[in-house]
Amino acid sequence: MTTPTDNELVIKESPYWPAILLVSSGLLLVFCIWANRMGTNDQCLKLLGVIATLGIFSILYQENPVFRYLEHIFIGLATGWSVAFTWFQLIKPKWYDPFVPAYWNSANTSDKHGQWWLIFALLLGLLFFTVYFQKISWMNRFAISVLMGWAAGNAFQQFMGMLAPQIVASFRPPVTTYEVQGLPNGDNYHAWNIWLHPWTLIALIVLVCTFAYFFFSLEHKHNWVRQPAKAGRYLLMITLGIIFGTTVMSRFTLLIGRLEYLRMAFIDWGHMFTFWISHLMR
Amino acid sequence: MYIQYILNTIRGLFFSPIEETWPFITVVAASIILFVGVLWLLHQLPPVGKKWLTIVCTFLAGLFFVFEYFWPTHTLEDGSKGNWVTPMQEPVSNYVTDVVIWMIFLGVISLTYVHGKRLLVRQPGWHNSLAFFLAFIGMTVVSFGSKMGDIDSGLGGTMTVAYNSLYSGLLVNLDSAMFALLAFYIASASYRAFRVRTVEAVLLMISALVIMLGLVSFGVALTSFIPAGSHFAFFRLEQLSTWLMQYINMPAQRAVTIGVMVGSLAMAMRLWLSLERGAFFSQEG
Amino acid sequence: MSWQALQNIDRRWIYLMLGVVFIISLMLGKPQTGVVLPTVSNLYQAVENVPTDKIIFINTTFAPNTLAESGNQARAIIRHVALNHHKFAIMAVDQQGANLGKLIAQDVAEEYNLKYGEDWISFGYQLPVLAFYKSFPKDIPGTVKQDAVESKPATAENFPIMKNLKTANDIGLMVEVSASSSLFDWIQIVQPTTSPRLKLGYACTGIMASEAYPYLDSGQLVGMMPGLKGAADYEQLVDEKEKLLVGEGKLLHPYAESQTIQKLIVSPARKLMFTQSNAHVVVILLIIIGNIGFLVTRYRAKKKQQEAAE
After folding, report:
1. Which of C32, C41, C81 is nearest to C60 (CA)?
2. Which of A168, A209, C230, C272 is the most exposed place for a label (fewest CB within 10 A)?
3. A192 within some domain
4. Model-level pTM?
5. How many CB pairs under 8 A join A and B?
């Protein structure tokens, strides 16, 4: 099998594709909803899932209309779900219920009603939409920079919480001393011993070399900066290899999950098929 | 103590809920008119004035958390450590959340514009844009519909079933399948791109191979001939991969994390003090 | 096939090869027994060392696309907690994760006869805003407000488990089962405000694992379960403990023989590791083949250049 050339990859789409895709997907969805209402115990959900998965996997062979269609459906579903999620989890409990008086919102059983000052939250939020109007778009920039200023102030608080333990943990001595007193035979023996922790020393060297590599305030002219920076570069390559290895593991697990879902769906249908065949043959 | 008294007075005067309908509508309408009026006045400012307004408000917004962090602390009523600003953190961050939750609709507007244009002009692939709109409207309607009415019978029941079909049947599976494609792409990309051209590439490949083998049973079996308790046990793949993670990866990641945190703090300072020159400050409204 | 062609195998053959290996491995897969990672042992010990009067929080912040990793991690932790007779709470800053965590906990609770409200509780989805992280350590019932199963206020009158759950000091361990960077909010915002420091465990996807090692070293994390390997190792430790309990007559049968296994939303991690192992071998072979082709081609080109120069 030769790699298709760019010309071959341009699929001459049949003019009937739009109708085929729209009508078939609509019929399938209506059938699944009807079948689920009749109680098919999630078999139709599995059918939709298998079709969706195989349709997405079809891109692995070649660019095709089915994949593009499913991709757009995915974006539409995700956007619709996000809107509903935002309303039910964010806007309604945090703004609508506290804002609207109890008379208008009897379903709200919490003690928060009529917080009129929340209107300013809506009005300030609407400033973000001024980006679409050239004359007043400065208000959008104003709103975003105030938001960024607020987040930047937050960074001060989080900085020490995150970083202080890391800096403290870096100061681990590679050489320690320990005291020996007495021996099992009871002699009054006392000495100081030095213990070298080779792995801690290596970790310290890696830390210093990696810092040296990223330290751009000093020119890498002298050997005492250049050599550690060079070593840091190689050590970072090892780290990138480690990150690559764990990334491969993670990505493969995503595929394993999906293929396992397909396998279980087909096994389930296989069992159903053999059950119905044996039932019919009686 | 005096600051607390002033705050309580302001809270009592201005931040009292209004339950009665007409006073509520009046206050809300007055607030809208006041807000629009203030915006109109600010809009009359020259560009330099708008720029300084942005800089001052950005500074004040950031000052809140900086103030809370650096102001001396004492033991509060609930036994925790804090100062007079600390009790305000929760309501202020709740309020900021109330401001930013509306931004989701910016994305919706952008998507609607892009796909709507394609649909109206009948560009190639218009049926995909139609599918987007049908999916978006359908999902929104059934999400709202499934939360209203009886979920077991009638329209509410149908909406719930439709929601399950669209969410569990389609959305979840499409999402998972999109991510699963990455496995194929990473295998193909590593086959094509991993070439031992330089010393760095060799180091990268060796460490990747050690980690990939050390995490799975095949790799453990490869070096199982080395006795576990011996001096050479270090060279067993699972031990070598653990050592690489703990003594090479860990300090390097720590150095990167510290560097990133210091860099982000510096960037935060620049944003807070409006020293950053970009679209928000150089363009005049 | 020339040496040059070894470098240019059509990507679709690679996809096909990978797909076939995956499917055959999934069909033939058996539970694997491997060498347990030290970070997983540390997490296991941390759960064992939690006092019985403290509650363990399991934050299931993941989506269905990482169910194979995160679902197995969550199930392994919940099984361990249940075997130790610890009380636990499920919570998430992701809505899908909140639902999945609840389903997994309900399966395990049914198997080990755990009573909702007494032995475990689910607080469902919590909005991951600054106000939540600030108020959670000081007042847990006031922050979570209600449970996710019965939708009742989270008070001691409604749920006996809430009697001893007021502040972060009542939490013996919090395990974040996450496919995102939600752990760093707990480390940055919550941990510094707690005294003694809140013990955090991490069950992450493989990608996040290498990033988390500095926090393990500094003591901000007590243990970690990286990816499917971590889930399989933890499952192995829990299965060994379960075997002991079955042998002592304290448990009727292993989880693998339970009725709830029929409703499993994901196959056990130990079984899926067989597929993972084969997949890694395939990728390594592909890399080696590609490099053999590259090196031989480069050597021959150099040789030709030298001959031409002579």
Report:
1. C81
2. A168
3. no
4. 0.89
5. 418
Yes or no, beta carbons of A260 and C69 under 8 Å apart: no
ipTM of the complex: 0.89
- Point out the domain boundary residue: A89, A111, A133: A111
**Amino acid letter, C173:** L
What would the pLDDT profile of A125-137 be if each residue is shown by its tens digit? 999 999 999 889 9
- Flag whether residue C277 sits within 8 Å of chain B, measured between CB atoms: yes
Q: What is the DSSP string of chain B?
A: -HHHHHHHHHHHHH-----SHHHHHHHHHHHHHHHHHHHHHHHTS-HHHHHHHHHHHHHHHHHHHHHHHHS--EE-TTS-EE-TTGGGHHHHHHHHHHHHGGGHHHHHHHHHHHHHHHHHHT-TTHHHHHHHHHHHHHHHHHHHHHTSS-SSSHHHHHHHHHHHIIIIIIIHHHHHHHHHHHHHHHHHHHHHH----SHHHHHHHHHHHHHHHHTSHHHHHHTTTS-TTSGGGGGSHHHHHHHHIIIIIHHHHHHHHHHHHHHHHHHHHHHHTT---SHHHHS--
C219 interfacial to chain B (CB closer than 8 Å): no
Residues forming a β-bridge with C200: C174
Nearest beta carbon to residue A152 from set B176, B201, B271: B271
Residue that is written with structure tokens 């769906």 in the block: A265
| Whether domain C38-263 has CATH 1.10.10 | no
Closest C-alpha to A112, from C153, B99, B14, B16: B16
Domain ranges in chain C are 3-28+272-309, 38-263
Q: Is B248 on the interface with C (CB under 8 A)?
A: no
For every residue of A151-186, DSSP letters joined together read HHHHHHHHHHHHHHHHHHHH---SEEEEEEE--TT-
Q: Would A157 be classed as within a structural domain? A: no
Question: What is the DSSP track for C158-207?
Answer: T-GGGGG-SSGGGEEEEEEEESSSTHHHIIIIIGGG-SSPPPEEEEE-HH
The partner residue sitting opposite C35, judged by closest CB among B184, B192, B220, is B220
Q: Is residue A180 part of a domain?
A: no
- Using one digit for the tens of pLDDT, what is the confidence trace for C98-156? 989 998 999 899 888 899 999 999 999 998 988 899 889 989 998 998 888 888 888 89
pLDDT higher than threshold 70 for residue A110: no
Domain of residue A54, residue span: 15-111
Interface test with B, best of A67, A69, A79, A135 (most B CBs within 10 A): A79
pLDDT-wise least confident of B257-271, C250-264, C266-280: C250-264
Q: CB-based contacts of B75: which residues, under 8 Å, 6+ apart? A: B81
**A175-181 and A190-196 as β-strands: parallel, antiparallel, unpaired?**
antiparallel
The mean-pLDDT minimum among A15-29, A189-203, C82-96, C240-254 falls in A189-203
Q: Are strands C87-92 and C55-61 parallel, antiparallel or unpaired?
A: parallel
Q: Is C207 on the interface with A (CB under 8 A)?
A: yes
pLDDT at A1: 46
Quote the CA–CA distance of B34 and B44 in Å, as a whole number.
16
Most B CBs within 10 Å: which of C14, C15, C35, as the mutation test of the B interface? Answer: C35
A181 CA: distance to closest CA in chain B (Å): 29
Query: Does residue A183 belong to any structural domain of this protein?
Result: no
User: Which chain A residues are Cβ-neighbours of C10 within 8 angstroms?
Assistant: 1-3
Closest by Cβ to C276, choosing from B191, B192, B216: B216
Q: What is the pLDDT of residues B229-258, one digit of tens each?
A: 888 888 999 999 999 999 999 999 999 999
Which DSSP letter does residue A35 get?
Answer: H
List the beta bridge partners of residue C1: none
Domain end point (choices A57, A92, A111): A111
Quote the CA–CA distance of B194 and B185 in Å, as a whole number: 13
Name which of A224-228, B170-174, C81-85, C177-181 the model is least confident about: A224-228
**How many structural domains is chain A composed of?**
2
